[in-house]
Amino acid sequence: MASMMPSWGRYPPARQHVLRVHDRFAPLPHFEGHALPRGNGRSYGDVCLDDGGTLLDARGLDRFIEFEANNGVLRCEAGVLLSEILELCVPRGWFLPVVPGTRFVTVGGAIANDVHGKNHHRVGSFGCCLRAFELLRSDDTRKICSREENPDWFAATIGGLGLTGLITWAELQLQPLRNAWFDTETVRYDTLEDFFALSDESAEAWDYTVAWVDCTARGKALGRGVFSRGNHAYIAPHAREPHEGRLKIPFTPPFSLVNGASLRAFNALHFRRAPRTVRRATQHYRPWLFPLDGIRNWNRMYGPRGFLQYQCVLPPHVARDATRELLERIAASGTGSFLAVLKQFGTIASPGLLSFPRPGTTLALDFANRGRGTFELLDKLDETVAAAGGAVYPAKDARLTGVRFRQYFPAWRQFSEFIDPAFSSGFWRRVVQ
Amino acid sequence: MSGKRILIVGATSAIAEATARLFAARGDALYLLARDRARAHAIAQDLKVRGATTVHSAELDVADFSAHARAIERAFAAMDGLDIALIAHGTLPNQARCDMDIDYALREFAVNGTSTIALSNLIAQKLQAQGHGMLAVISSVAGDRGRAGNYLYGAAKAAVSTYLSGLRQRLNKQGVNVLTIKPGFVDTPMTAQFKKGALWATPEAVARGIMRAMDRRRSVAYLPPFWWVIMAVIRAVPEFVFRRMKL
Question: Over the Cα atoms of chain A, what is R_g?
């Protein structure tokens, strides 16, 4: 059955057959041409698309296999959502060491994109809490991969964009947890310099740090924003678990709701509403770690043409100047998003060959797809990132040129030896051409 | 005793699995019967992690009628009696092939109709002897009226629904409740080849409906409930009109 099954950014368009996988013991379903495993389709661009090919929809692989409640080792099938793991483990006193900004991603997707969270500086990326997994190849062979067994396949598959085979199950090391709450602090800051100062000052004592940045601010206010930091709470408050809102964007509006005027208004308001001095609060993990999960289908906000997300990392020694240059370019364009994020990555290396996270400063934001102007702006941003020796995150990309990709990920040639001959993706065909 | 003791026949079906997860989450004890041993074992492991107090799984091919009695006997023995038995197995026969190949049609009728009746009969005897319990069986809205597109399947489900109606009357005074579950279109591997529209429900939604119907000791549950309205209209169409309709 041909289906649209778009990515989260709803760009680029793609048509592909969808075959469901729901039995981890069965061989891959039969397909013609090329195929690509698909989790929950929450990556933004075309790493989860296979135009003209087949998607192996692995959401049906959603069974837990074993949970060792004494040491926090969880084995489950690869289509299980991180949200399902959290619902199961939090009441039993365990937490996922690494969660991205949405909990509605599958374990397989989290491995394939080697996702990271607000605590990267403390625990590294998703690959760091991964103990083992099974890889099913199109020739019907299976490989158990871990740091000890098939370590080269382990490294290639972490951040391997689903191209090395279908992950059927994975084994994760969870971390012990006292309760479902976070002690948090929020404070607004006025300059980019302040962001770096706050990040440095918070890195020791705070497990989770992140900043919202006003991507419309220019001149002296460039880089201003709201800094948040949090730690797992020692003591749970005497509060009821917050009810997650039923907010959702019910249909796709005919045009993007994010435009120059709404962007400036929202960002100015959001900045002014933030506390001038440090505000402490105890917040439940759901709204604090996953604020956007509270608005279902928020991606529809950008209208029928969709949007492009841009996330890059800039190495520490040039991070200040390069971040400033990027923010200047973005502010001058008058485009950007309500939610732009700045964060300092730490130095813990991922086992993944094509992993994105690396030491430095990462900036992430959306751009409504306005055609050529948007793509030209992103190409300009790439000039800065490339000159700084940084990289762009494939999980969020839909337009990177092959030259840039190969520059950002020099291990790509070594990686390509591990690709399943029957697997491909829109992203991969684009960047290796 | 904390949880309920539950038997599921056809435990690898999508609706059965979704329902079993709800049983597991509230700490019930489960006994799974399925044809595919490996998949049943995978589901048993999953249910254990999700909170089921105990999970057994055993092999049963419902088309092998001679194996029924022993399988049911063992389930009741292993669980020391049962509170709920859910019969959920089924296939979706290819009607065009049924039209041309009567052997195939009768085999499919046996799987979807006769085997369900046979198992219902066996389980009912056991529950009657216990003096309590619930038999819940997944029939289908397709059994409410024969349509050109799937009347072999519909006829089998009609037989099941009618049998359960009589069984319910018979057991009414015996403390045993019989629940006929009639799902509409459900998005499962069994229906993977169909285009999905607004009438389609997820197995999870149907599972929640099954739990509600069980808790309320209902007799018949259309799931989602709007199917009751649709089927009432379809049943009311006079035959001389219905024969010309394309449904």
Answer: 21
Nearest Cβ partner for A63 among B43, B189, B192: B43
In whole angstroms, what is the distance from residue B77 CA to residue A389 CA? 68
Task: Spell out the per-residue pLDDT of chain A, length 433, in tens.
Answer: 566 789 999 999 999 999 999 999 999 999 999 999 999 999 999 999 999 999 999 999 999 999 999 999 999 999 999 999 999 999 999 999 999 999 999 999 999 999 999 999 999 999 999 999 999 999 999 999 999 999 999 999 999 999 999 999 999 999 999 999 999 999 999 999 999 999 999 999 999 999 999 999 999 999 999 999 999 999 989 888 888 777 889 899 999 999 999 999 999 999 999 999 999 999 999 999 999 999 999 999 999 999 999 999 999 999 999 999 999 999 999 999 999 999 999 999 999 999 999 999 999 999 999 999 999 999 999 999 999 999 999 999 999 999 999 999 999 999 999 999 999 999 999 999 7
Q: List residues of B whose CB lies inside 8 A of any A CB.
A: 38-39, 42-43, 45-46, 49-50, 189, 192-193, 195
Domain spanning A67-177: CATH 3.10.310.10: no
Instruction: Write out the CATH class of domain A181-234+250-401.
Output: alpha beta
ipTM: 0.93
Could you tell me which chain B residue has the CA closest to the CA of A66? Answer: B49
Report how far apart, in Å, the C-alpha atoms of B214 and of each of A239, A263, B19, B207, B210 are.
33, 51, 11, 11, 6
Beta strands across the sheet bearing B84-87: B55-59, B29-34, B5-9, B84-87, B133-138, B176-183, B220-223
A-chain residue closest to B189, CA distance: A20
Q: Which residue of A has its CA nearest to B39?
A: A23
CATH number of residue B47's parent domain: 3.40.50.720
The minimum CA-CA distance between A26 and chain B, rounded to whole Å, is 10
